[in-house]
Amino acid sequence: MAANMLAMPDIVLATLNAKFIHAAFGLRYLFANLGELQPRATLAEFDINQRTLDIAEALLARQPKIIGLGVYIWNAAATTEVVAILKRVRPEIIIILGGPEVSYEIEAQEIVRLADHVITGEADLKFAAVCRELLERQVGTQALACTDSTLKREFPLPKIIPAEPPEFSGLVLPYDFYTAADLAHRIVYVEASRGCPFTCEFCLSSLDIPVRAAPLEPFLGAMQKLLDRGLRQFKFVDRTFNLNLATSRTILEFFLARHQPGNFYHFEMIPDRLPAELREVIARFPPGALQFEVGVQTFNPDVGQRISRRQNYERLADNLDFLRNRTQVHIHADLIVGLPGESVESFAAGFDRLIGFGPQEIQVGILKRLRGTPIVRHDAEWGMVYHAQPPYEILQNWLINFAMMQRLRRFAKYWELVGNSGNFIGTAPLLWRDESPFTSCLRFSDWLYARLARTDSIALVRLAELMFEFLTGELRLDAPRVADAMLGDWQRGGRRDLPEFLREFQPAKNRERAQPVRTSMPKRQARHLGI
Ligand code: SF4
């Protein structure tokens, strides 16, 4: 069932996604739970690369009475602009905000000042209740029964309206509102639970939000429907998928029994909880089917304790070793730079240790001060200074000054291109042949930045050429050996072309067949090559 595409709905539910490819999950939950208002509502998705004037124009063209906007860390600035434009052009349209970015520390926010109402917390049911009340009392033409006792028939409604975390059993599941195009072309999110029982102080999920599980039978029924409609990639947003072992196992068994080549399932895991009954089913998944996002964050137990993150490092090591060596799981492990009390040396030791486990990806995240999170209690003691604008990344602390933080920020970005992209699987380890992976990669990062003065929009062939130059020139590695690794990487994806700088290392008969790629290739051609 597609979302209602009314030309002139009373309610428009909108958000700005980080990229077009991300289908807005929360918006579909709100739409699914509108009840009798659903025929009077429509969904409108945009992305942050669109111009805010165009977004406002598209919203106004629908002539709604109410616009609900999902506000997140990635869209807060652009959404503020959209709301400002809407309120200047059509001040009578009621703007209701929701989402994590406007659920905490709301007093000082410009977007909150501009909006009519803000629903804090999980708004799945409350949004419908507020719309019902507004349409009946203020702008409505037909009587609607308000069933939400917490609104107390109070009018005008308060600006800030808190929503209690709803029970899953009271929610209509949103999966029917993914369209066929969503299923075919976008990242589709699903969830079997909400909340997290842990207390990591940098994380929004630690804010005393009870863990709630979706009733399993209807949830699996909805997953079956998505499979039947052709969905192949499922991204679970559960913060701790392996919390309830029986449920995790049932869900994994469900997908394994229906697995077809090309299907892919992504889960977020806590890394120190992988007992035998879960290991057994994980090990039966074929290559390319499972991806686990494993939040390590820090290997320093003192830092872990300081930020109230409970982690058993022995079990974590054992589980990483198991996943890497006895399963086909693609591991995406997370580390954070800038935690209170974590020095560069401590981070480096953690990075090197994680490299030793051989995960396919290591995401180096820069600490963010998310609104409402208790990480701020360390600000004075550790000199924590964060950017004032979203995503509120750390700028410096007592142990890592601004200049060093900038180097680490670039390290994280280049690591994405070199270590995580899958483009240099054979070549990247040459960077740290004889020394600490962190030290060597930081040196490469500094060298690369001195050459490029940027960390993005780097064509793959240019990056490969610079990496070759660094490995053979700076590290003095044997050129044929480096070329051999790079040729393997270049051809792994089935490419038939060949960068010019590698041509002399290619066996003669292959060289004739290969098309040369010049470093100055046009951008469009570079994109065609997956760059
Ligand atoms: S970081 Fe992970 S384990 Fe910690 S509170 Fe957040 S979701 Fe829970």
What is the rounded Rg?
25 Å
Strand residues, percent: 15-25%
> Can you list the strand order of the major beta sheet?
2-1-3-4-5-6
Number of helical segments with 4 or more residues? 19
Distance, first to last CA: 36 Å
Structural class category: alpha/beta
Bound molecules: iron/sulfur cluster
Oligomer: single chain
Biggest sheet descriptor: 6 strands, parallel
Number of strands: 18
Q: What general form does the structure show? A: globular
Mean pLDDT: 91
Helix content: 25-40%
Low-pLDDT stretches: 140-145, 519-531
Tell me about this structure:
- The chain has 531 residues and is an alpha/beta fold.
- It contains 19 helices and 18 strands.
- It has helices at residues 25-32, 52-61, 76-89, 110-114, 126-139, 180-185, 216-228, 245-257, 276-282, 301-306, 313-326, 344-357, 379-382, 402-420, 437-452, 460-474, 479-492, 508-513, 523-528, and strands at residues 11-17, 41-47, 66-70, 94-98, 117-120, 160-162, 188-190, 193-194, 212-213, 233-236, 264-269, 290-297, 330-337, 361-366, 385-386, 394-396, 497-499, 515-517.
- The strands form five sheets. It has a six-stranded parallel beta sheet, sandwiched between helices. It has a six-stranded parallel beta sheet with strand order 7-10-11-12-13-14. Strands 8-9 form a two-stranded antiparallel sheet.
- Strand 11, helix 9 (276-282) and strand 12 form a beta-alpha-beta unit.
- Helix 8 (245-257) runs parallel beside helix 9 and helix 14 crosses helix 15 (437-452).
- The longest helix is centred in the C-terminal third of the chain and has 19 residues, at 402-420.
- The radius of gyration is 25 Å and the shape is globular.
- Residues 140-145 and 519-531 have low confidence and may be disordered.
- The site of iron/sulfur cluster has 10 residues, from loops.
- Iron/sulfur cluster binds at residues 196, 198, 200, 203, 205-206, 239-240, 270, 295.
